[in-house]
Amino acid sequence: MPHAIESRTIDMLAGVDTGTQIPITTIEGARPGPSLGLIAGNHGYEYPPILALQKLRGQIDPAKLAGTVRMLHVANMPSFLGRTVYFSPVDGKNLNRVYPGRNILYPRVDRDQIVKQGTGLADITDFFGRQIGEVRAPFDGVVLYIVATPPITKDQPVACLGAPRQAPRNID
Ligand SMILES: [Zn+2]
Predict the structure, then answer these.
(1) What radius of gyration do the chain's Cα atoms show?
(2) CA–centroid distance, residue 122 to ligand 1 (Å)
(3) Domains, the chain, ranges and CATH?
């Protein structure tokens, strides 16, 4: 397996704001394994985690690593550059309070799949991978959609089933 350290920036295109860049590092290990994501700089004026990731980057040897480490060095670059503590100087929001979702959804079915009542449609875990729930089909039907962006919040619809007016016919 090729192993390497790559550092670059991700361009965040201008939207309602002027856009920015986010510095990241990806360390691909020599052997397969889990992925670890590390995020610093949600609050741009809190330097220790930012410095910790920069230090950690030089201490990981990809040749000895199993899996992947992804570092996001400064999540809120406008806050970092603007020297604001908690709130972005662009929109006045606290990045730590606007991440979507509190749990992770793992779909077990695809769109258009025909499912029986009680079929498991998806598993729900917390951010540490502990299973905290399961979504089951309330009736026989066809999966019309299933949420593809894993972070979810409580009470959010995650799938839609359609019940055909009549059972699908086999065409011979
Ligand atoms: Zn903070």
Answers:
(1) 21
(2) 32
(3) 4-97 (no CATH), 103-162 (2.40.50.100)
